[in-house]
Amino acid sequence: MQRSWRRRFHLPAVIGTIPMILVAVGVFVIGIGFSVLWSFTSSKLFPTYDFVGLAQYRRLWADSRWLVSVNNIWFFGLMSISCNMVFGYLLAVFMDQRIRQEDLFRSIFLYPFAMSLIVTGLVWQWVLDPNLGLQAAMRNLGWSSFSFAPLVDANTAIYALVVAGIWQGSGVTMAILLAGLRGVDEEIWKAARVDGIPTWRTHLSIVAPMMKGAFATAFVLQCVGVVRVYDLVIAMTGGGPGIATSMPAVYVIQLITVRQNVGQGMAAATMMLLPVLVVLAFSGLVLWRRNRRQEARV
Amino acid sequence: MDMAQNGTSVSIQDLSLNFGAVSVLKTLNLDVAQGEFVVLLGPSGCGKSTLLNCVAGLLDISEGRIFIKGKNVTWEEPKDRGIGMVFQSYALYPQMTVEKNLSFGLRVAGLPRDEIVKRIARAAEILQIEPLLQRKPSALSGGQRQRVAIGRALVRDVDVFLFDEPLSNLDAKLRSELRVEIKLLHRKLQNTMIYVTHDQIEAMTLADRIAVMKGGVIQQLDAPQTIYNRPVNRFVAGFLGSPAMNFVEGRLEKHGDGWSFVAEDLKIPLGTYQFDGQPEAGPAVFGIRPEHVSLNSGTGWPFSTSANVEVVEPMGSDTLVWLKLAQQKFSVRVTSERTPQNDEAVTLGFDPMRASLFDAETGGRI
Predict the structure, then answer these.
(1) The whole model's pTM is what?
(2) CA B349, B354, B360: angle at the middle one, nearest 5?
(3) A65-297, CATH topology level
């Protein structure tokens, strides 16, 4: 017992990771704990301990702004993740053709991800601003009827966000999928060619299934990015026009800072945590079952 | 082309391949007869796999033409060439069951369902992989995987099988087992097979003819025994045979009306040696295989001499005895029960008829 404990935990390693453990426990666990705790209180500007049960959740789900936020995040998430995956894969395939200047292209594609969304979001906002960006430029060139101002239209603003999200995220997806693609043995491709399988079919039926791990990694990264999407919205639309592009993270921050309603903000934050927990529990279950099956085989 | 009538299955004519400025294959010619088993043998980097990839259509060639069954397939897609290929890494599709691995290409080609079932059943029976059909490649052993890979070539119902070092990833025991199976398969199917390997035992045992390659050029193309007994140059002589052929460096000299090989105090009369052409006096290399030298077996040999044993290497079935001849390392293969001891004085004898003489400069056979 004593020996197995020592074998599993090397003292220097434990000491080395103590700061990280403290941060993780302090910030994540305790912070999340208080969030959940306060979501059951009537806290306004400052947290209190006046418990009101599920009242904040009932008010939250009656708030049209929250409902719009939830709708938006689903739309934004589905659109940007699926497009990111498709574009990322296509870019990776393109990069895998042994093109010249591969490093340059990879840098270009990865650049959006390396920069702060506050900066790139601002640039996008300028480009799409009717008085500054594309529309103004086209009109100055003489096309006076040209109209392109997606950010000021409540129906199209979310699409602009999706496009910016894809622009920002597909480079990372490409990098991950490219690594996966490079991991596929060249002889697999040769075998498929001898078998007479068209290239697209080889990608779809043979290579993509071999890259399950890379796809999963890219997908999880995208999901995390979507759930916490905040800076992009703030930089480009501020949640507007009106509440058209509000997202849960934006909603939470606004409730806490602007509307001084910590209780309901925490309820919203807890609701954001819920799907993440479900996904985590599910993946944990899958992993656990796979391990058990492997042990059973051995 | 009149190749088909002549029974030529694969014909490679003046094939060259350059990667940029690097010439990988140099105006190479090779005709493979219908049903013949040709092995491309050579050290790594000699271009043997490259040549096979060219035949398969996986590499575009720079110059020359390739005919398969009399049809010019130089610019055809691999699937239209009537070839099946087996790879070193097996290259099975890992997410598919064995059955799907076998059937996928056929389904994509749009073959009728019952025909696919029939072909898979036949291949599975020939290769004895019926119990494995529903398994994924990850649940198979190396030998089973290679069998499935052969099956994937088999179901394509092609004339020519191409093997790219198919046994190199297997351990020694499995390798010799599968070697026999491939030989049996060839007997059963009577297909043309082109087989790439760097393993001379595989080449010797499997081939009808061996093409020994070096530097993108076929050095010698002949039956295994001919290549073994009468190598055309020093490279071929040294590459084939384990333990390797002995080489003694010296001079070719004419004494009276007979030729002799002279190195220091050693003088080998070449009365029984068959020269390839008209010999000339000058530097030469004398080569003889360790098993063609006899130890302590009397003086009835055309040539015999004495030497001291330096090292004895028992190898199980026989023993390799190392000694020095004209100050140069020389090995003798002994199969008799009584093997000599270290430092023992022995007499050795051989018939120069079994030897090979090479030009010291060009390495060509004299």
Answers:
(1) 0.79
(2) 100
(3) MetI-like fold (1.10.3720)
Residue type, B157: D
CB distance B56–A197 less than 8 Å?
A: no
- Enumerate the domain spans of chain A: 65-297
Least CB–CB distance from A210: residue in B85, B94, B104: B94
A281 or B337: which leads in pLDDT: A281
Task: Report the residue of chain B nearest A212, measured CA to CA.
Answer: B95
Above 80 in pLDDT, residue B303?
A: yes
pLDDT of B2 over the 70 cut:
no
Count interface pairs A-B at CB distance under 8 A: 62
Contacts of B157 in chain A (CB under 8 A): none
Residue range A246-260: average pLDDT? 84
ipTM: 0.83
> Which residues sit opposite A115 in a β-bridge?
none
Summarised one tens digit per residue, pLDDT across range A74-124 is: 899 899 999 999 999 998 888 888 777 778 888 888 887 777 778 888 888
Distance from A215 to chain B by nearest Cα, in Å? 15
Q: Residues of A with CB below 8 A from B93's CB?
A: 188, 191-192, 205-206
Q: Chain A residues contacting B, CB < 8 Å? A: 185, 187-188, 190-198, 201, 205-206, 209-210
pLDDT at B120 over 90: yes
- What are the residues whose beta carbons fall under 8 Å from the beta carbon of B283, sequence distance 6 or more? B249, B250, B251, B252, B359, B360, B361
Q: Which residues of chain A have a CB within 8 Å of the CB of B84?
A: 194
pLDDT at B3 over 50: no
B220 beta partners: B212
Name residues whose C-beta falls within 8 Å of residue A130's C-beta, 6 or more positions apart in sequence: A136, A148, A149, A152
